[in-house]
Design a protein that fits this description.
The protein is of the alpha+beta class. It is built from 1 helix and 3 strands, in the order βαββ.
């Protein structure tokens, strides 16, 4: 049986710890992480806005 995986994104007004707790409450444990920069354009030039952080969650079997 394969394990179900879900990507959880850290919301704008949420800490990483809050996201990890939300994962645990949903029955998932973190097994990977990815980040990508989010930019917006100001005067025709890209400006870094924030980092998009996601955790790969594997359903924990208990």
């Amino acid at each position: 049986m394969s394990k179900k995986t879900v990507w959880f994104e850290v919301e704008e007004n949420e800490t990483i710890d809050d996201c990890l707790k939300r994962m645990a409450d949903a029955g998932y444990m973190p097994m990977g992480r990815r980040e990508e920069p989010i930019f917006h354009e100001v005067d025709g030039k890209p400006v870094h806005l924030r980092q998009k952080i996601q955790f790969k969650g594997i359903h924990s079997e208990e």
